Amino acid sequence: MYYNPYPIFVYPTYYPTLAIVNPPALHQPARYLAMPTNPTNTNPFPAVNTNKLKISAKRVKRIMQQIQLLTDKIDGSEQFAHDLMDAAQKSNKSEVKRLIISTGITMTFETNYTPDNIRIVFTDIECCKLSLVLSW
Questions:
Q1: How far apart are CA 129 and CA 122, in angstroms?
Q2: From CA 114, how far away is CA 100, in angstroms rounded?
Q3: 124 near 105, Cβ under 8 Å?
Q4: How far separated are the first and last CA of the chain, in Å rounded?
Q5: How far apart are CA 113 and CA 120, in angstroms?
Q6: Which of 40, 63, 71, 72 is most buried, by CB atoms within 10 Å?
Q7: pLDDT at position 91, please?
Q8: Is 20 exposed, middle or buried (0-12, 13-18, 19+ CB in 10 A)?
Q9: Which of 62, 77, 41 is nearest to 108 (CA)?
Q10: pLDDT at 127 over 80
């Protein structure tokens, strides 16, 4: 049993009777609901067209090939990994950019670095972005 601090009067004699001049109209449901409930059209969304999705997937593969160039160079060369990390820790943006481009990357990218990691965002202007975060 719950305690209710607000009294509820059960008997109608406790409430004053009011003369309602204009009774409220019955509530009408909205004509445009967030999710239409028309039984004839069970799918409220437009028809699926996968062309743009397929193009984006193909372009992401190209970005992944560019990332593979960079990660192979970092993994394969101790000197390159040292130079990249050193330049990033010193906030030498031009040197970081030069080192990344020297791996053969031809896409546009942005770099951000912290004392813990480097974040490189590769961008294909027409469709997609892919972020690479490498910790040290």
A1: 6
A2: 17
A3: no
A4: 59
A5: 8
A6: 63
A7: 87
A8: exposed
A9: 62
A10: yes
φ and ψ of 133, to 5 deg: -120, 120
Q: Across the beta sheet with 108-113, what order do the strands follow?
A: 108-113, 117-124, 128-135
pLDDT tens digits, one per residue of 75-126 = 999 999 999 999 998 888 999 999 999 999 988 899 998 888 899 999 888 8
Q: Which residues contact 130 (CB under 8 A, 6 or more apart)?
A: 60, 63, 64, 67, 121, 122
Q: What gap in Å lies between CA 35 and CA 114, rounded to an integer?
A: 45
User: How far is Cα of residue 28 from the mean position of the Cα atoms in its chain?
Assistant: 37
Q: Determine the Cα–Cα distance for residues 19 and 21; give it in Å rounded to an integer.
A: 6
Give residue 133's pLDDT band: very low, low, confident or very high (50, 70, 90): very high
Burial of 23 (0-12, 13-18, 19+ CB in 10 A): exposed
The structure's pTM equals 0.60
Residue of 46, 61, 47, 63 lying closest to 122 (CA atoms) = 63
